[in-house]
Amino acid sequence: MFELPPLLLALAFILxxxxxxxxxxxxxxxRTVRLPRDYYVGLDHLINDRFDHAAEIFARMAAADGDAxxxxxxxxxxxxRRGEVDRAIAIHSRLRDHGGAGLRDKAxxxxxxxxxxxxxxxxxxxxxxxxAASREYRHAALDTLVGIYETQGDWAKALKVFHELPPAVQxxxxxxxxxxxxxxxxxxxxxxxxxRARTLLRQARTHQAALPRADILSARISERAGDAxxxxxxxxxxxEMSPGLALEIIPAVLAIARQTGRVxxxxxxxxxxxxxxxxxxxxxxxxxxxxxxxxx
Length: 296
Hints:
By secondary structure, the chain is mostly helical.
């Protein structure tokens, strides 16, 4: 990974500091821009890789000077992007614990991102759950939490956070909620709880009525219940809506056809796929040939 030498990093920090300081005070009476002595002392520590001393000085400045705090946020983000998450965590922890009241939520959110980058998901979750009570950072905290839960495959928690989002956002993301519910239904089915799976699939369809994944799972439930006819109809409906699932659906359909003596099933499959308007003749031929079980 490419890394900036400490001196170049410090020089970049100086430029950011000068710009922030000048912009914050350019309307003042004095024409000369003068930075506090602590600023130079902090930079000296930074250049000489005495990071803890530098961070302590900048934290003290941040408590009294909003410009210094913004500089620290920029530095913390830079460290996070460069993979130096320990340093980013140190900066944002100090800002959260010792900065002014107006900085705490911002610092806490930055700290949660640091923890996430470091793979410390439990810590990130705790900080984000606390931030969900913040007016300014609630939406960002919930969005980040959902991303963490999706990465972990924790669909129940992701769904819980979904229901905490504003109603308008829930409408926009209805398809995603349906996906969570299908994942939970599939898990219930694996555990042998068909009734819970049915309930979850009904909920999924309230978010998205046309849902091929839900039809496939419902077909499996029907198969387990011994209702081959219902399973067949559900599989075929899913295939019409989403021919891309053919490699999963066709073997199941043909297995049911063999059990029920439906010798015309290949013709039925071809007709439905053609009428879907979503596959070319060449794609249709390939799908049927690929999905067919090997002879013998």
